[in-house]
Sequence to fold (64 residues):
Amino acid sequence: MDKKLLDILVCPVTKGKLDHRGDELWSVAGGLAYPVRDSIPVLLETEARTLSLEEIETLKAERK
Fold:
């Protein structure tokens, strides 16, 4: 995913930062993972899956 695009995208629920992980954009603050389909982020809460506690902790640790 293009870094410039990722820099301007935010979680639609929390307005917080998103992290690109494989074919998803993760929102730690919202605890949600938004899918990226055909290189297009789908930033709909109804399409997001809930992040596991392990996934959230992993991302928090990587940010330190």
The chain has one domain: 3-63. The first strand starts at residue 19 and ends at 21.
